[in-house]
Specification:
The structure is a homodimer. By secondary structure, chain A is of the alpha+beta class. In chain A, about 35% of the residues lie in helices and about 25% in strands. In chain A, a hairpin with a 4-residue loop joins strand 1 and strand 2. Chain A starts with a helix and ends in a 9-residue tail after the last strand.
């Protein structure tokens, strides 16, 4: 069965959809800025569960995932649209009021104003589609396609925390925990994305939403390059050790997804001179188009495009 | 139970959401144009049924409903985002390929390019969120709030056809029929909307999506005015007579919705001089704030805000 990336690539080439395929579409706005736009659909029991997500955390996450796409282009978020399909049962409660109060709170933190959307009824599962518009200085959006052989590969913060948090939630544990927080209330890396854009540091960028392997493969495919990841350099979330084996923690860091950190490539000398904090070099871009390897304990293995897929 | 309009109005005032509440949000773009943006969510078994909608008609309608919102501001559509939550069962078929082929065909007719979106899995019902961006000369968007006492009330084309088509489909009849076409493949009134904008003709405008009563009430609320509709002037779809009683046909025309015609107000002298075709004056705006009446057979009745609501 084709996966969603194959379907989208097929549509792109069939209909010449040149604007489709990065974290955001980049559209003409005015003489100084380009317009960024992105949509993310969240479906109950597929992308979240109301068993462990309250309206407040869902309101936060619904906006955060789209802000993360704006961050991955080096842009600033400005406006949002929110479309919600909700059951009559949930409609009768204060769920949407609490959802929106929390949405509004994160929106204010990032300077985002709600501009519209839609409300529909659904017989059962909640569906949310979040659209965010942003802005980036003209010609300065950071695409997935700019990685060059010899570039370093960098990631912000740490990985695997969101996947570990999900594993804790799926076991039924609801005690407050740093890893659960990482899963339910991700922080979009808007400041870092802007910094990388303003100082011309990143050659290619994506946010870690599907998993390091999958997201790095997107950069390599778009850029026509390959990559080698050094396993011992991958920054694993410091709290994972208490809940996972060593094998599990690397697996979560490589394929877990939803950390919403920034994964980017840069000229290593150029980047080293900039002293950007809280970023780790985890590997190098190679000229071997389409080949994504990981080196662990002196052994080289294919990392491939492991990560979350809907299909 | 509060309906969705009450919920949205409450959110608007609680959080000062000044951009929310018209057919599109109007955002700053550049020195000559404003940006328009609108989202519409379509849920299977609520907004459409796969019993009588094939992928091609759904692809058409998913875009047409949002184009109609751009038309209602007097704008030109330019870009779209399409988010789809689809079951694995449907994913395995050619449903989405056929859906998108038809979507692309109407998009080309109206000069719209797909810029992005999302694909998610859903356990059962198909959900589509369609976002369209458009453009309008700066300061020239036609709002719901500009109607003035003494303005005429006008509607394009005819009403009730989509509701009659739905009634035919719900009876199980699948023979090709003009009314079924009106329900399944609405025509967005982009040219008329632009014409009214370019010639400064309309003082307020909305598209007829929920029903004449409901949509006219939105204009009256936003404008702080009232309205009188003359029943005998309401242009009823010419093919309705064969499938409905006289009472039913007026009911469908007043509350059926989904005709996606343009409902607007204008200075009657100014409008008469412009000789716009295929538009009928159906009443007048009054100074009686919030009062929407219909005059039929010499009797005045409250029309209220009858029409489609999700809640």
């Amino acid at each position: 069965m084709r996966n969603e990336f194959e379907f989208i690539n097929n549509m792109k080439s069939l209909y010449s959809l040149d604007l489709v395929g990065d974290d955001c579409a980049v559209l003409p706005q005015n003489s100084t800025h380009d317009l960024l736009i992105t949509s993310d659909m969240l479906v109950e029991d597929v992308d979240f569960s109301l068993k462990w997500t309250d309206p407040e955390t869902l309101g936060h996450k619904a906006l955060a995932v789209s802000l993360s796409d704006i961050a991955a282009m080096g842009g600033s978020p400005e406006f949002a649209l929110l479309s919600i399909a909700v059951s009559e049962k949930l409609w009768k409660t204060d769920f949407l009021d609490r959802f929106y109060q929390s949405w509004h709170s994160i929106a204010q933190n990032y300077g985002v104003e709600l501009a519209g959307g839609d409300i529909s009824r659904v017989p059962d599962r909640l569906v949310i589609d979040s659209t965010v518009l942003g802005s980036v200085p003209k010609g300065r959006a950071i695409w997935r396609s700019g990685a060059r052989p010899g570039d370093g590969i960098y990631v912000s913060g740490s990985l695997g925390g969101a996947a570990a948090g999900l594993a804790i939630l799926e076991k039924g544990d609801r005690e407050p925990h740093e890893l659960i927080e990482k899963q339910l209330k991700p922080t979009p890396q808007i400041s870092l994305g802007k910094q990388l854009q303003q100082f011309h540091l990143a050659t290619a960028m994506i946010d870690v939403s599907d998993g390091l392997g999958s997201d790095l493969s997107h950069i390599c495919e778009s850029s026509g390059v390959g990559a080698i990841i050094r396993a011992e350099r991958v920054p694993i979330h410091p709290s994972i050790r208490s809940v996972a084996s060593i094998d599990e923690e690397l697996q979560w860091a490589l394929s877990g997804g939803e950390d919403f950190e920034l994964l980017f490539t840069a000229d290593p000398d150029h980047f080293a001179a900039a002293s950007i904090k809280n970023v780790t070099q985890i590997g190098e871009i190679t000229g071997e188009r389409g080949r994504v390897d990981i080196e662990a304990d002196g052994q080289m293995q294919s990392l491939g495009s492991i990560g979350f897929r809907h299909f």
